[in-house]
Known about the structure:
Layout: E1 3-12, H1 16-33, E2 36-42, H2 47-53, H3 59-65, E3 70-75, H4 85-97, E4 102-108, E5 126-132, E6 142-145, E7 153-156, H5 162-179, E8 184-189, H6 197-208, E9 216-221, H7 222-231, E10 238-241, H8 243-256, E11 264-268, E12 274-278, H9 295-307, H10 311-328, H11 341-353
Parallel strand pairs: 1-2, 1-3, 3-12, 5-10, 8-9, 8-10
Antiparallel strand pairs: 4-5, 4-11, 6-7, 11-12
This protein binds 3-isopropylmalic acid and manganese (II) ion.
Manganese (II) ion binds near residues 247 and 251.
Amino acid sequence: MGKKYKIAVIPGDGTGPEVVAESLKALEAVSRKCEVDFQFKEFFLGGVQYLKNGMLLPEEILEELKTVDAIFLGAIGHPDVKPGILEKEILLKLRFELDLYINLRPVILLPGVETPLKDKGPGDIDFVIVRENTEGVYAGGGGFFKKGTPDEVAVQESINTRKGVERCVRYAFDYCGERDKERKLTLCAKTNVLVYESDLWNRVFEEVRLDYPNIKTDYQHVDALCMWMIKNPEQFDVIVTNNMFGEIITDLGAIIQGGMGVAAGGNINPEGIAMFEPIGGSAPKYTGHNKINPLAAISAAQMMLEHLKEKEAAGLILEAVKKVLKNDLKSLAAGKMGYGTSEVGDLVVSYIEG
Length: 354
Ligand code: IPM
Ligand code: MN
């Protein structure tokens, strides 16, 4: 018997439950193949519960989530809930309360996947973005003055703590060393304008890099980095950046790696708990139609196994996903795959079973 992991599963809204179901199928398949076992416990959070009884993220659930080995999330978001409520009170609250200070987003183009970048293929697009996940403008500092009047002032503050920046930068250096591709870490900031925030990031980066003599470093302003991600993505290995820049460049990354059908991410506390999710939202228009692509969620499950240091199990899922992409799917887009959501899950399982 291998190790048994307690996994909290939050299927969430929209197509979340459908893609989560396929991911759990894949996890169960790997547990039959290698020494790893899971105990899943579902938690029903999201727009549906909020509309039913006003529930967002109750204290008891938050406390219980602190006791599991990892959290697996489908999607949170509901067309009938005003934007901002579920995000702030569930997703962002989980990030803050569990101190999930790293948002890890691999941007890897797998064989068989189309990229909108002309003349780029797998191998050209193969990097990882380390996004700070608990500070910056996401900390929510700011306020209004004279709201609703012609003299209105709106202030949105970016909070950057020495501790918060340093732990993120150190994680990125460590990750870059372990990834062992080119051992090159790029800091993405905006030192020419954000003379406080980016100055702190840059000073911390310059200081921490002395502890990592084997890692090459580079600096790019965020605007230029967006251009280079399109023109010359092969130059990147690992990129580290603040919360808001990371928020933006990770979506740019998602589209060049093939889009929401494949993009997955992790919200990680390296000393504690971590939560994995597909990047695409709840896709209300596809809900219940067996049309959504589950591969992003299945890749999130693979990231979760990597995080749990279950390399063999993670490898089985990755290889199965690669085979489905190469051999089976007509397109990655919802409704155009040539298979339904659950059939894609079945294909993954059949490749895992070998
Ligand atoms: C993400 C999302 C969230 C963010 C939203 C849903 C609050 O876009 O995880 O990238 O802004 O961080
Ligand atoms: Mn985002």
